[in-house]
Amino acid sequence: MTAIREIIRYIIMLVFVMPLLAQEQGTPPTLEATFSAKEKVEVIQKPIKLNGVFEESQKIKDNSIESTSIVEGYKLQDNSEAAKYDSLWMKELYENASLYDDMYNYVSNLEIDTLKQLTIDTEVLKERLELLDQKTPFNIAYNPSLERVIQSFLLRKHEFIGRMITASQFYFPMFEQELDNYNIPLEIKYLAIVESALNPRAKSRVGATGLWQFMYSTGKMYGLDVSSYVDDRSDPIKSTAAACKYLSKLYQTFGDWDLALAAYNSGPGNVNKAIRRSGGYTNYWNIRRNLPRETAGYVPAFLATMYLFEYAEEHGIKLNKVERPYFETDTIHVKQLITFDQISKLVGVSIEELKVLNPSYKLDIIPKIKGKKYFLRLPKDAIGKFVTNEAAIYTYAEKEIKSKESALPKLVTAEDRIRYRVKSGDYLGKIAERYGVGVSQIKRWNGLRSNNLRIGQRLIIYPRKPVTTVSSNKKASIKSTPAVSLNGNSKIHIVKAGDSLWTISRKYPGITIEKLKQWNGISGNNLQPGTKLKLCDCSS
After folding, report:
1. 523: domain CATH number?
2. For residue 164, how many other CB atoms are within 10 A of its CB?
3. Rounded to whole angstroms, how far apart are CA atoms 277 and 269?
4. Which of 37, 60, 229, 538 has a 20 to 30 A CA-CA distance from 510?
């Protein structure tokens, strides 16, 4: 009997139960079935209480979704694969920031005459350069110097160019649109690689900032404002428009794009001097030896970059295809003060990505200032979350800021210019360092022909570092960095072969190129091995 009952039970399972199970397995699960009542994802139609959302979301743990560094503040789920690709893409842009110093030093100290190993046939290079010359307004005629620069890039910057090609997919569509608006050759987009290695927060030793490396005074001329919160020179769209205006003006002056690029780097005055010293030549390659060393390597580096982008595949330079260019993001006008940390929590975008998309906000804070408009750039899928819940987001941000023990930094604006009165002990290098500008700039602004100053003399300065008028009893004090911090009591550096003012300044904390020039009476950049350089404002 027991055996008969087991057979009957087995038949019932085959006939009735198994078909039902198979039907359930073949039917896709509904959203209702996937989440419990507490875990349902609802479309948000109106502002919600954010505290409640965060309390609820902390109780929910869905192990089926791959974890990322993004905080899902609203419990809205993203496609895990797409989120992973976005994360990798932003990581690529974020890590490229470290490449700026390397590129700046490489171009400034471009050594090509010692290059021995060749990686491309000269005749092949000539053919490719001729094809490039036919489709650009730049003078890309073959010459041995350009060949050596290209060979140098292939040997020493192969990986760098690959990373720049990847990062360029984010910025180049925006560059090309703006360049086209101003009727500027689209190839100028490669200039941002030489200038900043596509790092919008790049800052040179003399204070040039952003993708297009604007000095404070030049940026002001073209509408780029600077305050303690915001630096428009780091805003990709604003700085690109300013660069287009500046380059257009330089081209109107020189009528030649090679010379316009040289003037963009070293200033129109240096290009004019080089033309005079060369005997009146106006071809870049004929005046190159009369330009500052950094500019002498600047235009060849630009042309080499253009060549390698155009012929990357032929040289085995890999392209990592990415799917989010700059214009697959969108902006929203921010009406209240809010921090990146708060935005990250509320709309589920990592702080690293916010920094990449909004590099002009120096303290990771979007301020509220009367008469000013500030915008937040977000991935398009996050814009909807912000707009739908805007009122509640501002309420939450204001409440959290008020609850903090320490107040946020107060706004400090950089004035257009100041009048500085020379005091006892002042010299141009000291004043320049105080306000974050160059000695040559102070001399140009004030028509000075020498470095000599007199006590009581008035100087006009366009400061890079913000100058504040603080409404309190305490006066803001500016502490100068120590002249030098050395091991032992040495105050002298003996120049060795390969030394430059830049490499020496990097060895000693607190030492700048301008200080070295001031203390040692140096006017140019050439150093002779064996020369003893003073590392302080001292007599010995």
Report:
1. 3.10.350
2. 24
3. 12
4. 229
Is 149 within the bounds of a domain? no
Tokens of 234: 């780091």
DSSP string, 441-492: HHHHHHT-SSS---TT-EEEE--SS-----SSSSPP--PPPPS---STT--E
DSSP letter at 339 equals E
Q: How many domains does the chain have?
A: 2
* Burial environment of residue 101 by CB neighbours within 10 A (0 to 12, 13 to 18, 19 or more): middle
Q: Is residue 56 part of a domain?
A: no
pLDDT digits (tens, 9 = 90+) for 468-492: 443 333 333 333 333 333 344 457 8
Amino acid at 353: E
Given a cut of 50, is residue 54 above it in pLDDT? no
The residue type of 345 is K
Is the pLDDT assigned to residue 163 strictly greater than 80? Answer: yes
- Full domain range(s) for residue 510: 492-534
Whether 421 contacts 457, CB under 8 Å: yes
Q: What pLDDT is stored for residue 189 in this prediction?
A: 96
Most confident of 49-63, 185-199, 440-454: 185-199
Query: DSSP string covering 110-153, please?
Result: ---TT-----S-HHHHHHHHHHHHHTSSS-----HHHHHHHHHH
439 has pLDDT over 80: yes
Residue showing tokens 């479309």: 43
Instruction: List Cβ neighbours of 501 (8 Å cut-off, separation of 6 or more).
Output: 513, 516, 517, 522, 525, 527
498-512 per-position pLDDT tens digit: 677 877 876 776 687
Q: What is the pTM of this model?
A: 0.61
**Nearest alpha carbon to residue 42 among 74, 66, 83:** 74
The residue whose two tokens read 């030793």 is 205
Tokens found for residue 68: 């990322």
Q: Going along 187-289, which residue ranges are E strands?
A: none
What's the whole-number mean pLDDT along residues 119-125? Answer: 86
| Residue 428 forms part of a structural domain | yes
Least Cα distance to 451 among 478, 431, 465 occurs for 431
Is 232 within the bounds of a domain? no
86: Cβ–Cβ under 8 A, 6 or more apart, which residues?
A: 324, 353, 379
Token pair belonging to 134? 């036919």
Last residue of a domain, one of 406, 440, 461: 461
At 436, phi and psi to the nearest 5? 70, 35
Determine how many CB atoms are found less than 10 A away from the CB of residue 463: 20
Return the higher-pLDDT residue of 486 and 291: 291
Specify the pLDDT at position 306.
94
Q: How far apart are the C-alpha atoms of 85 and 92, rounded to whole Å?
A: 11
**CB neighbours (10 Å) of residue 438?**
21
